[in-house]
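User: Assemble these into one structure.

Assistant: Restating your components, then the assembled model:
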Amino acid sequence: MSRKEASMEAQKAMLADYFRRLAAAPGERRPVVYTFVPGNLVELLAAFDVLPVYPEINALQSAMRQRSSGFIREAERAGHSEDVCSYVKCDLGMMMKGNVGPTGEKIPPPDLLLLSFTGCFTFLKWFELLREQYNCEVAMLHVPYQGDGVITQEMRDYVVRQLRNEVIPKLEKVSGRRFDEAKLQEHLSRSARAEEDLVHTFHAARRRPSPIDAYFGGVYYIAPIFTSFRGSEAACGYYSALRQEVDARLAAGEGPVTPEGTLAKERFRLVFEGPPNWTSFRDFWKIFYDEGAVAVASTYTRVGGLYDRGFRHDPSKPLETLADYCLGCYTNLSLPSRVDLIAEDIKTYGADGFVFHSVKSCNSFSAGQLHMLREVEAKTGVPGAFIESDLVDGRYYGHANIKNRVESYLQMLAARREGQEPPRAPEGSP
Amino acid sequence: MSDDLTDLVRDLERRFADLSLAHVTAWKAEAPGRKALGCMPVFCPREVLWAAGALPVFIRGGGDQLETIRGDAYYQSYICHLPRSTLELCLGGWLDALDGMLFPNTCDVIRNLSGLWSSVAPGRFSRFLDPPQTYDAPAAVGWWRGELSRLYLDVCAMTGTRPSDEALWASISAWEEPRGALAKLSRARAAQPWNLPADEVYLLRRAGDAMPPREFTRLVDCYLACAVARKARREDRIRVVLVGAFCEQPPLGLLRALERAGCYLVDDDLLLGAEDLVEPVDAVGDPLDALARAYLVKGAGSSVRYDEQRARGLELARRARSLHADGVVFAAPSFCDPALLDQPRLTRALDEAGVPYTAFKYSEDTGQFQSFREQAGTFSDSVKLWGRA
Ligand code: SF4
Ligand code: SF4
């Protein structure tokens, strides 16, 4: 990055500090809990003073540092299929090679595997595989899927019962502490505070030019801090500073910061669906900013919660609010709800188009995406683009092909805007 | 083969080939108000549907009999084949005999298909079912009982049936019969696989996907009586267990190719969901509560169920040993998360137990079996040479 915002530097320092604390955890006898990003219970974990480890984050961080391919090869050599989620293989490969994390520090083994089964079947199998390697406590939290597009009281009660009967007792066991509801409430209050600032930041993309990139920037420095640090004073400070930074950019009429500086001219406003490619993250982003294309909203930044739709952690109902949070994550939404969300984003954020990045090894996101694309087009009258690669498996990222598709798609959007007939349909749009 | 058996197998083949479910339409026509509900693998609450007056019908894709054209437009090449052919069945009117569809939370593909269904079959009844994945009994039973109850009342409303505990108990008892018959079939096949070839057993069990329980029980009994009497010649083949966590079914030709390559299939996990409980439901208390409890504690394990006991690998090794199997053949649908993510755990357990295995992937519309045959043949030869105790 040529010029970084203070928030970008701050998040880097916070993550580095997090990995340092993680490496020091065994020495300090601090329990470590492996869990997943969607539906994570970070406030509850903090109430027990245990440290979370998110295998997906390790995988994507490894990919950004070009270390995932070796890990994936290692896992495939051990019999893991080329067809399955590359996050899983990257994580298992890392474990096979000594569990040295993305920053070069060793990630301690878990004291508890907290399987928050929220919106992705792979999670379940992933933890069954991890469990074979570690002789530790395991807690299962089954979060029912919003098949009918609603959260019912029965779903909420089911999750709360599991929190009481299964998750909290296991956390008490590994931490040696009693559950302190007041402490959980403090963390939840701080989460709610930071959520206001996070939403303000994402909503700023409604303005023209958008001061943020809600996909590339979103996954790089806006949303991740929420996963690991939600509920902490540090997160409150981070999001308050980020809000000020974004407000200053808005006042100055500045576009988002890209790896090559502030985007000079916003030419296209896009909504993104699906996880990014991490192995070539910067190249992938460049394809868009070179053309003046800015992401004004994205679905992947909502896997950790749909705050912009009004959800806030509510300290007055601590367990119920955790249940609602888990139930409401993007990955737990039905296909029609996902379609509605993208269509509304296109309207709310005044987008010219939308891009589906389909990931080869992720059934949770990808199965049904072609249909979703057509539904969004029908609902909005806006044409979409469909591109394909993978998350952390570099073998499936074809830069030239993706660049070609994106460029012809953007050309079509430009022609459309000028009232011309598009030169030709973009390759890759079904 | 006796004439009876020839006729029976021919009838099973006809049923298998009838994608339009004519036998379901015929069953519905026999009495007013009858309904039929389709259910995607791998779990179908048959007792609940049957008590409400609806015939449960497992839908397992279009296999290699259906050309998938429209269905392909819905899915990228890296998604398994089953949802495409299922959509093709729906769009082509092949599922018109059904009054609705159930989608259990088997994997993310079927889960997402449930959302897609409202667009391809608008106005038709469809329901997503989320069986418990936790073993926290109070939470799991409470949740699952609630889901079953909601389904029961909705299907009763559809069929015009008065909901009652008696009807539920009668249905629970009715479905114990085919379970018993299938257990007998499994034992007979393990004892004399030369008399019960894999393709026949498959066709027979597949017929049970869409048949009233008593009728299916009679069919199994009838087949068993004929098959064990046929006195086929026992050949020098290896005994294998076929494992793949199937949901998308392999083509019949693939099963035949395996047997022709020198294997006797003594057990398999094809048609998951057909044998859903390992023990009978406890007939006490509230029937829906009993069903929910049975699912939790007596439900058959599979790759789509959280394996709390960490026992699937050990169980597979034990099963192979108890069936005197010479080896295990893993056959999984391409891009199938449950099957492929499970395989490394299962193979590790087999390695530790010293059970030989081989593995391949297929798609339901695979038309070429030569490579499977060669691989299975090589496996069979090497087991005969080195592997037999
Ligand atoms: S959501 Fe997709 S990428 Fe994430 S763990 Fe599940 S399969 Fe992998
Ligand atoms: S074959 Fe596998 S991935 Fe496909 S629908 Fe069935 S269980 Fe899911």
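Chain A is about 50% helix and 10% strand.
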